[in-house]
Design brief:
Length: 83
């Protein structure tokens, strides 16, 4: 089974916090989290977002002049439990 989700990375923590505030104002489900191991960034905070909303969020970032580093699609393969 494979779990796919998207994250946005940031250069500084302040940008992550501002991004979260604006996304919540526009009712996008967002969760700040540590940057996944598969991704490297200057800041240790990433925002988990719905992959199907990427284009809408990119447009909103441009309109609101929100700074971010990159968008990443993360594929996490769930390992079967031994129990």
């Amino acid at each position: 089974m494979e779990d796919v989700y998207c994250v946005v990375t940031f250069h500084v923590t302040q940008h992550a916090l501002l991004f979260e505030k604006v996304m919540k104002e526009f009712k996008y489900p967002i969760k700040l989290m540590p940057v996944p191991r598969q991704v490297s960034s200057s800041c240790g905070i990433a925002a988990k977002i719905p992959c199907d909303k990427k284009e809408e969020i990119l447009t909103l970032c441009k309109e609101k002049n929100l700074s971010f580093d990159e968008f990443h699609e993360i594929k996490h393969k769930n390992k079967k439990s031994w129990f």
